[in-house]
Amino acid sequence: MHEMLVGLEVSNNDVYSQYRAAMMPILVAYGGDFGVDFVVSEVLRSPVNTPINRVFTINFPSQTAADSFFADSQYLKVKAQYFVAAVRHTTIIASYEKSI
Questions:
Q1: Which residue, 30, 2, 28, 6, is CA-closest to 83?
Q2: What are the residue ranges spanned by the domains of the chain?
Q3: Which residues are listed as membrane-spanning (predicted)?
Q4: Beta-carbon contacts of residue 30 (< 8 Å; ≥ 6 apart)
Q5: pTM for this structure?
Q6: Can you tell me the distance from the alpha carbon of 96 to that of 3, in angstroms, rounded to the nearest whole number?
Q7: Largest Cα span, the chain
């Protein structure tokens, strides 16, 4: 399983919720899912200087499935419509293979 630990600065929670709802069927089609998902109130240490207020893991059956999902034309339309308006910064904290 391929897993990514992601930090975001979400600037519009309503639009971000619309993004999540719109992208979920596409994510599921690639065998993906979210693991843990946190709203963060205070960051004590970070690898970047940009704010982080949301942290989650996103899982795929393989790196290939993840790459295909992020390149999918329908996903890119959803991202352009919602994600860009809702998220100021994205930080990929880690990307790794995880045994089930």
A1: 6
A2: 2-97
A3: none
A4: 60, 61, 65, 66, 68, 69, 72
A5: 0.92
A6: 5
A7: 37
User: How far, rounded to the nearest angstrom, does the alpha carbon of residue 4 sit from its chain's CA centroid?
Assistant: 8
∠ CA 19-21-31, nearest 5°, is 105
Contact between residue 14 and residue 100 where contact means Cβ atoms under 8 Å apart: no
pLDDT (0 to 100) of residue 48: 87
Q: How far is CA 67 from CA 8, 9, 11, 12, 17, in A?
A: 19, 22, 26, 26, 23
Residue 73: what are its φ and ψ, rounded to 5°? -65, -35
CATH architecture of 2-97: 2-Layer Sandwich (3.30)
Task: Kindly tell me if the per-residue pLDDT of 98 is higher than 90.
Answer: no
Summarize pLDDT for 18-72 with one digit per residue, the tens. Answer: 999 999 999 999 999 999 999 998 999 988 899 999 999 999 999 999 999 999 9
The runs of H, that is alpha helices, within the chain are 13-29, 63-71, 73-78, 84-86
